[in-house]
Input
Amino acid sequence: MTETTANKILLVEDNQINRDMLVRRLTRAGHAVICAGDGEEALQKMRAEQPALVLLDMNLPIKDGWTTCKEARADTSISHQAIIALTAHAMENDRQTALDIGCDDYATKPIDFPDLLAKIAKFISA
Amino acid sequence: MTEPTSEVSAWSSLVIRAVAPLRDAAGRSSVTLDAFARKDVSALIAACDKLEELQVSADGNSQHDALNIIGAIKGYAEMLDEDADALHPAIANTLAGIVSATSASPSSKRTQSVSATGKVSATVTNLSEPGVILAVDDMPENRDLVSRLLGKFGHTVITAESGEEALELLETMGVDVVLLDLMMPGIGGAEVLKHMKEDERLRATPVVMISGRQDMDQIVACIQAGADDYLLKPFNPVLLQARISAGIERKRWHDREEQYRQQLERSERFIRATFGRYLSDDIVSEILESPEGLELGGDLREVTIMMSDIRGFTTLSEHLPPQKVVQLLNRYLGKMTEIILDFRGTIDEFLGDAVLAVFGAPRKGDDDAERAVRCAIAMQEAMKNINEQNLADGLPELTMAIAINTGTVVAGNIGSERRAKYGFVGHEMNVTSRIEDIAKPNQILISASTLDKLPASYEVGDSQSISAKGIKENVVVYTIKGHGGD
Output
């Protein structure tokens, strides 16, 4: 089994403006961040880069977050990586579905950043 | 599962408006930022530009983007706000408004307003200080409800049952936030809002619109017309309180900014009054416009220095009553000041009856020396008129001598932080003073260095060489006989 890189976070977000902002804030908080813009790219990077944690937007082009998460959980080379789902709306349904398909946690957008950092801290340390 | 388009659009409008003051502040040349902050501010403004673009094209996809971008703007604003102490206050002051606008998701409003009220009470944080709220609603039970809810949080609530009454109350009462029902008989909420935005004194008072969900289009129109926020009926008490707090906060920021602006205006008036006495108007404006204009310090400049004095004035003044001395001096100095400023000279000092003026600082011209000489000629000519007036008032006749010299001096704001003036120091100042000592009544004496700068059209008399204490080399001076070109 491949060793996960201690602190690395994979941020999967298709909106470039929001992605840039999150990278900036996460980096500032001491995290190493890599990015993917769609579900397909996310799976590739999860395999190649072995991040410790994936921040996964559910609303993605090519392959959405839901499918990506299910596929990640079915692939033993990456299934151990923690996934925090990012859902666009404070929808009770989305939250439960995310947990049901195997996400470790979820955060709603717009991101409450201190809350997100606390959730990240449960899986990795900066 | 997506937001109704109009709600995202209304929210976007709120956010775009909240970013406007930051855009403004960042565009001002006097507002400086470090490289990191500058980058974050630029990213935030670029995100807002994108949001504005999306406002124009409103398909389903752009809505998803808009929500993401609002999230990004929130992130940048929060990040900047974390280091607010290190930011220029003009920037820092805009961040709370942006965080507040980007945090108020209409979707969370909806979910919260339908959820049990007991549960959301835990989210009441960051309450502002109490304020004066004007609640405008035609339904008595709504007015009572709002009064009770807001009263509980320590706010003073004034109520109006119609648009007409609201406008009357606004005339006389100092109100922090207006809670305005959209649908009322007579003057409706939209019209009250319009009146407020047209009135300079009421324009800055935040307005929160209240309406039913079915009137969303009109709410959007109100926000475009300047309303700050909205609440849908039946509203959640916690959200009501949150909107009001945000409104009060905004009003307080505005008041503080207004205060700051007035302070700036006062200090600008002070600078004009202080400097205006010895600098011409355009130079005062130049100093005010350059942010470094008032820094202490100096630079080496080539200038033309002019000194004038009334011959025998000290003896004269001993034989006159004090009031007459002042009358004589003011008439003379008043006229001379006017002439020197006309020729764009800078008056450095009045020493009794003597005037020290400099040409070529703070602003250098191509014809500094010539302006000084023409100014001196005009001053000597003006003496005729002054003496006519003196004669009429039974005052003695005055004669003036003028010395002009060109050379390099140190020019700058000289003094301490508490008391500084734009002044000049250097050897050439002393040389000018020596020339002045030997100038005869009605004479204009110029040094060879000034003559070098003059066009050939000036007539000069024979040269004479002077040596004086503290001056190593002899200085050659000439009498100005007149301007051949006149």
Notes: Chain A has one domain: 9-121. Residues 16-28 of chain A form the longest helix (13 residues). The first strand of chain A starts at residue 9 and ends at 12.
